[in-house]
Specification:
The complex is a heterotrimer.
Chain A lengths: L2 E2 L14 E2 L2 E8 L10 H16 L8 E5 L3 H4 L4 H4 L8 E5 L4 H14 L5 E9 L7 H4 L16 H16 L3 H15 L13 H6 L2 E4 L1 E2 L8 E10 H7 L4 E10 L13 H14 L4 H4 L2 E3 L5 H10 L8 H6 L16 H5 L3 H17 L13 E8 L4 E8 L1
Helix pairs in contact in A: 4-15, 7-12
Chain B lengths: L14 H12 L3 E5 L6 E2 L5 E2 L4 E2 L2 E5 L2 E12 L5 E13 L10 E7 L2 H5 L7 E6 L10 E6 L1
Parallel strand pairs in B: 8-10
Antiparallel strand pairs in B: 1-2, 1-5, 3-4, 6-7, 6-9, 7-8, 9-10
Chain C lengths: L2 E12 L7 H16 L3 H4 L2 E5 L2 H4 L19 E4 L3 H13 L5 E8 L7 H7 L16 H14 L3 H14 L14 H5 L3 E3 L2 E2 L8 E10 H7 L4 E9 L13 H7 L9 E4 L4 H11 L3 H6 L16 H5 L6 H14 L4 E7 L6 E8 L1
Parallel strand pairs in C: 2-3, 2-4, 9-10
Antiparallel strand pairs in C: 1-7, 1-8, 4-7, 5-6, 8-11, 10-11
The chains are: A alpha+beta, B mainly beta, C alpha/beta.
Chain lengths: ~400, ~150, ~350
């Protein structure tokens, strides 16, 4: 069975509605996320891949193509990291990279590997081992800035988030206490997640009283530095039907990169995510996301980011997401559960692996295998998203069961 | 455990746009490029307009004044060591463009107090560049942006 | 459905380019490619792909600096960390999956900005098994392969020098061949060894440059031009560790070649950043390349015309733009009236990753 894809266009000569192959996820695997793993990056990749292949019922030899995602090479301490992560590859392999948004670019890329007819069975992997970097993983982020105009000022990654968070608070008059509710919700959700690094019961007060890192960011506003890997097996429709009764389909993909000059942009709203979301929704035939999406996995490296992302994904009105968190809308038993598995704030943030973890969490929800993390309402359609670069990149995947 | 320090050294080419900009700073001038078609003013400057995909059409001098778009106070260094006195920085929306969402803007230190960052009174405040006596053609020729 | 190249542009290809930043260089190449395709990137191009690696740029998350200069600002833009031919492969998949109708692919090199390029190459080696054992220069990995290739085929150092001499001369007349030269075999053999059996002239130098390729679906391509160049691309990674590779066999390129449809090629454009690699890589497409060299069959009009515009030995190695540089040569060749050509690209040491780009009209 084939469906017609809405081709995402800006108005070229003519639009042709084409039949495109359907693509399903039939297996997913993750390592536990931890502050420091004693496995090598290669062994983390291996563990996640074996778990994903086992669930799919496939062996490595059955795989046609491999897609790898990993964020800055500096973390693992290896240049040309794609080749390094899988020493006995012997497959067509490419690595995709879009900063922090890489983890969701991996299944997007896996999608078009299959949809294009290039491969039938794809192993899509994301990995990050941050603990190896010295003097501190934060130091790696010194070199993400414009080397001539920005690095001399001495910024670190927290600054980006703090600047964006403060503008968001200012523009929409959102108090820190309301933002902290996201951290409270996600860490509590993570307590039920066997892969989580930092699940637990905390209060708004704990967040507000935790160490001020870069005002307005306190330590508990932030997801932890982690090591980890995640993998999914993505296949064509005929393969999916043969191997599973519960495939989860990729209904839409979208991504967008804004310009490099974050210094000259309104930081209170992520317009690039809105565009990426619209691309994915259009492909999935979704017209009213807040009504048609049953569960969301917005990228939450910081608590306020989940709010901004819910807004740009059109799941909450601008500046109003915090209010909806307060009302319980995004709780596991709410109308639109958000990060029911605990998100990056609770599970951990090994950059690229964390993005793929969001997609895997959504896959579990749609398949109905999320266990204690399973949301109350029945779910048919969900969205997962990641964000990155210099406040400029977003990647979006819509899955459907 | 294997320790390895990569010997990665680079000499980045500033290129045409940034070279003119850096030389301008030496003369206490903030220079931007402008696209005549969409009227976008670029600071930091670019030799091409990203919106129209054509070369920019010329240079304009902007005032060394603007409005604080956002501000932060950092208590950690880039190696995540604790700082006693916070570094205060942010982005400055410079005058010279009528557009809202995108504007000529700079990232720099802001000379103000932690309290003004905390209560957000610095956001939206008018600031002016404080120039160093000795200028070498670097972003560091500006000491900070200070409230006026 | 077929996919075509509807425009290509390049800029630079000089040992150093201090007058432009890498982004300005890419803008120049992109402007030329879009002019050739007669397309406006802000209206007509759906997706944009940059092919680069962080440590080549000296920027962590170099993807941040990818969009503006190719017209990909606020559009679906992302990075494939690899050779430009891998970028083309992703572009082809975008088009065949219906995500895009027109895709732009960019690769560039600012090698002259890297002060410690040998150390960066070493940084790509396995940190536990290879780096501690690494000799003073990274060419040792290529030398291992050269020895294996010599043992297998009987290739001599004179054969290697002959390749260098031919390639450096082939570069005359090629506007991108900064390293073209008139050298004979004895000039080359007079050099000391860098890593047995490789001499300095056997090794291509690095170069700055940018290449942009515009790909389009069949219907768009036919509406834009009467003479589109159709393409197919593939990639294959054997390993990153010499112990797992079949040295001197170019298993990575064989793997890539096995992924694409077979056709007869009129010209071969293969990665020759080390002289012997020309034969090793050509051997993937043609039997007994050493005999072809000795019989003088590698020139235009021969039975296996190979790198007739000088290859990377003449043009230099523009990092991840190497594959697209060979593609520029292949296109030049097709423009002379030939009907097909193939590019065999390689990511260089320490990788065992190869790409094939098949081009025909």
């Amino acid at each position: 069975m084939e469906r017609s894809a809405n081709v995402y266009r800006y108005g070229l000569i003519h639009v042709e509605v084409r039949k495109v192959r359907k693509v399903a996820i039939i297996g997913a695997g993750m390592t536990k996320f931890a502050r420091r793993h004693f496995k090598t990056p290669q062994e983390l990749v291996q563990e996640a891949s074996i778990k994903a292949l086992e669930e799919a019922g496939l062996g490595y030899n059955d795989i046609d193509c491999v897609v790898i995602g990993s964020a800055p090479d500096a973390f693992d301490g290896v240049h040309q990291k794609g080749e390094y992560l899988f020493p006995a590859m012997n497959k067509p392999m490419t690595r995709v990279f879009i900063g922090g948004a890489t983890g969701v670019m991996v299944p997007i890329s896996g999608y078009y590997h299959v949809a294009s007819g290039m491969c039938d069975k794809v192993l899509a992997i994301a990995e990050e081992k941050m603990s190896q970097a010295r003097p501190h993983p934060q130091a790696v982020f010194r070199y993400i800035w414009d080397p001539i105009l920005e690095t001399p000022i001495g910024p670190n990654l927290l600054w980006i988030f703090a600047m964006e968070m403060h503008r968001y608070m200012y523009a929409y008059k959102v108090p820190k206490e309301d933002i902290a509710l996201v951290s409270v919700k996600n860490k509590a959700n993570a307590a039920d997640n066997p892969y989580a690094q930092l699940g637990g019961r905390i209060t708004v007060d704990d967040v507000i009283k935790s160490e001020v890192l870069v005002w307005p960011v306190n330590r508990l506003d932030v997801s932890p530095v982690s090591d980890g890997a995640a993998a999914v097996v993505m296949v064509s429709e005929d393969v999916a039907r043969r191997y599973t009764d519960t495939p989860v389909w990729v209904a839409g993909v979208g991504w967008t990169l804004d310009n490099t000059e974050w210094t000259g942009r309104d930081l209170s709203y992520n317009r690039y995510l809105e565009i990426a979301g619209r691309m994915a929704y259009k492909m999935a035939g979704i017209e009213r996301p807040n009504k048609e999406i049953d569960v969301a996995e917005p990228y939450d490296p910081f608590d306020y980011k989940e709010l901004m992302h819910l807004e740009a994904l059109q799941l909450a009105p601008k500046g109003k997401a915090a209010q909806l968190v307060k009302e319980g809308v995004f709780n596991r038993d709410g109308d639109l559960p958000s990060s029911p598995g605990g998100g990056l704030l609770g599970v951990g943030n090994p950059i690229a692996a964390a993005g793929l973890m969001k997609v895997i969490s959504l896959y579990w929800q749609l398949k109905g295998t999320a266990g204690k993390m399973q949301v109350k309402k029945p779910v048919y359609t969900g969205v997962a998203q990641a964000w990155g670069d210099l406040m400029q990149a977003s990647t979006v995947v819509v899955l459907r069961r | 455990m294997i320790r390895y320090v990569p010997k990665a050294k680079y000499s980045y080419s500033a290129g045409q746009a940034q070279s003119v900009f850096l030389n301008g700073l030496k003369e206490k001038k903030i220079l931007g490029t402008v696209c005549n078609k969409c009227k976008k003013v670029y600071v930091p400057p670019k030799m091409y307009c990203e919106e129209c995909f054509k070369p920019t059409d010329g240079w304009v001098e902007l005032k060394d004044e603007g409005i604080v778009h956002t501000a932060i106070a950092s208590f950690v260094s880039w190696t995540r060591d604790r700082l006693e006195e916070p570094i205060i920085s942010g982005t400055i929306k410079l005058y010279g463009s009528e557009r809202d969402y995108v504007f000529p803007g700079m990232f720099h230190r802001i000379c103000t107090t932690y309290d003004k960052v905390r209560d957000m009174s610095i956001i939206g405040a008018k600031v002016k560049a404080v120039w160093n006596e000795k200028r070498v053609g670097s972003i560091e020729d500006i000491q900070c942006f200070k409230e006026v | 459905m077929k996919v075509a190249i509807v425009g290509m542009g390049w800029y630079g290809f000089r040992p150093s380019t201090p007058e432009v930043s890498f982004r300005e260089m890419v803008f120049e190449a992109a402007s030329r490619a879009y002019a050739e395709a007669n397309l406006d990137p802000r209206k007509d191009v759906d997706t944009f792909i940059s092919s680069q690696e962080d440590f080549w740029e000296g920027i962590s998350i170099a993807d941040e600096f990818a969009p503006d200069q190719i017209g990909g600002y606020l559009r679906p833009t992302f990075t494939v960390t690899g050779d430009g031919v891998q970028g083309i492969l992703h572009g082809i998949m975008h088009i065949k999956s219906g995500i895009s109708k027109v895709t732009a692919v960019e690769a560039h090199s600012k090698a002259s900005d890297i002060l410690t390029i040998g150390d960066i190459v070493e940084f790509a080696m396995d940190p536990i098994f290879l780096r501690p054992a690494a000799p003073p220069n990274f060419h040792f990995l290529a030398a291992l392969e050269a020895k294996a290739y010599q043992r297998r085929t009987g290739m001599t150092e004179e054969d290697m020098a002959e390749i260098v001499s031919i390639e450096k001369r082939n570069g005359f007349g090629n506007p991108r061949a900064s390293y073209a030269a008139n050298l004979n075999v004895s000039d080359i053999l007079s050099h000391e060894k860098v890593a047995e059996p490789l001499r300095r002239p056997d090794i291509a130098d690095f170069v700055d440059g940018a290449v942009v390729v515009v790909l389009a679906s069949e219907d768009i391509a036919r509406s834009l031009t009467d003479d589109p160049i159709w393409v197919e691309a593939s990639t294959f990674t054997e390993t990153n560790y010499p112990g797992y590779a079949e040295l001197g066999e170019a298993g990575y390129l064989r793997g890539a070649y096995s992924q694409i449809s077979k056709r007869k090629f009129d010209g071969y454009f293969v990665d020759d950043r080390y002289s012997f690699k020309l034969l090793e890589h050509l051997g993937v497409f043609k039997a007994d390349p050493l005999a072809l060299l000795r019989e003088g069959q590698l020139g235009e009009g021969g039975s296996a015309p190979t790198n007739v515009f000088g290859g990377l030995l003449s043009e230099g190695v523009p990092l991840e733009a190497a594959g697209l540089t060979l593609a520029l040569e292949a296109r030049e060749y097709l423009r002379k009236g030939y009907s097909s050509a193939v590019v065999g690209s390689w990511r260089g040491v320490p990788t065992y990753t190869g790409m094939v780009l098949s081009m025909w009209r």
